[in-house]
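Thread title: Can someone regenerate the structure for this chain?

I was given the following input by a collaborator and told the matching structure tokens would be attached. They weren't. Posting the sequence so someone can regenerate them.
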Amino acid sequence: MPRLNPQDLTSALISALEPNTVSPASAPNDVVFDILLAEDNTVSQTLAVKILEKYGHTVEITENGSLAVEAFKARVQANKPFDIILMDVSMPFMGGMEATELIRAYEIHKKLLPTPIIALTAHAMIGDRERCLQAGMDDHITKPLRRGELLNSINNLVG
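Best answer:
Regenerated them for you:
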């Protein structure tokens, strides 16, 4: 696992938590979501959890796509599915695209409604959004995560 650089963590937290010119979509305070975060980078994990928990959401973290698929299936089998999944596109063992395709196949096989999946990417490359949507993801945001963008995406999909 990569070593945390305190300066990187601090600057990421400050940029994510500082007031943003784009206000997050308003949602009632009692609307909280159960969120699966598939992310291998500890700085991104910490940042996402800080943002989401500040708004009352609960977060379960997995470090790769394979573990995300397992966590998703376990929650469905326990009749406690996630409300939304935040899926890093580039992770070791299994990336977010493959994990999303497996989750979508499982949902079809079990006749489940699709769980919203938001792609998280480190770079805003031309065609990234289209590839994510083609893999079955519902939205795409770039890292470092920004509070307003993350909360707006979640609220647009499940709010």
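Residues 43 and 107 are 31 Å apart (CA to CA).
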